[in-house]
Predict the structure of Amidohydrolase-related domain-containing protein.
Amino acid sequence: MNSHRVYRGTFIQTPSLGKLEIFEDYRLAVNQHGFIIAFDQADKFSTISWHEETVIPRGCFVLPTFCDLHLHAPQYLYQGSGLDLPLMQWLDTYTLKSEEQLDSNHALARKVYRKLGRRLLTNGTGTVLLFGTINEDTNLILAEEMQKAGIRAFVGKLSMDISSRPTYVEASAEASLNSAKSFVSRCRSLTENLQPHERLIEPVLTPRFVPTCSDSLLQGLAMLSEKEDLKVQSHLAEAHDQVEWVRKERGKEDIDVFAEHNLLTPRTIQAHCTYLSPLDFSRICGYGTAIAHCPLSNVYFSAEPFRLREALNRNVKVALGTDIAGGYSVDIMNAMRQAVAVSRMRQGRETMGQPKITELDKPSQNKAKLEDEGNLAIDWKESLYLATRGGAVALGLKGGLFEAGAPFDAQMIMLQTTSTAEGLGNFDFFEDTALRVFTEEIVEKWWCIGDDRNRVSVWVQGAQVL
């Protein structure tokens, strides 16, 4: 007997920017390794046999899980507090202290990371790119807890040989590189006894950002990334004080620092990028580098909104991040809403004749004729793409779609109870009838007011984890 599992019901996805697809009464088959092997209309689904079928109840639909492209795992310890300072002071006052605390208290680290894993799944996040701490063992705890939770996690041990906190820094560039190499090996060994499809965690090289990394360290990490085919994550052009620090200390823009050290490649994901110009986005696209857009933390720390439409117009790979704890919400649905809100405010400013770009973030070497970008606002469907398929593309994954060959990473959303036809969570329905057909209007309503009360199941690599 085969071990294929089949799900029958309504499936919704955003295969490309701004395109929403609603598949009513479809069947989707998943093999024993958690990969989709068929997806078609239920009455045409005759080429696959199965031993088990799950019928998605009326009032429910299945959507790809969310991808969080930028989250600081140790900062979950103080999520929702300490947002009162500029970035560089905030790091000194809150962040480094909390990371040092977890590095010295592994029991606390395991508790924090276990709760984080559960919270991510509750909010529909099946894939996450994580910043950790500088201690190898603490990051291995993070990797273990994500694997146990069943989350597809890319775990980054921080590399930083420069620090404003003398007790929280690696001894030298050589020591930092050796620690990075060791962590990569140890992280990979955690899952070496598992089948390939069961290995959900992957190490990522993580130079924190230019202010904490010497040229020697950046160069060494670039060589390690190429040799071991490792992804790289960092922060780029995030905040005014950070940009000015790099200009003063390095005498150049941090995009140039990363480029000169071969750290802008298709394996790289850079967070924020709020102070990049349209010309810089063309460079980013040419490198194949992806950007993690974190709209909430940008409001607190960047003093400038990310130029999302300009990046998308230049075919930059962009997805969404929560940036815990620079952003206070671990829910990607909030990131989607905030991304739309910020973009609409940008469009409103443009409509009112305000300047598109300030002199502050247009250094002399980047001066170029400003182009007409069209409507700067994005809509909810575009944000849903960024939260699902866009994240998979940024990470080089096949997910975010219901198609053969993709992993079955999905979440089931319930808007109406099956037995009483009552709305669930924030939903109220004013006719006592069962919800039988999903329209764009209903999906948009979920996008606006849905929350974790509407999420009843989550699958990652075919395994039900919530």
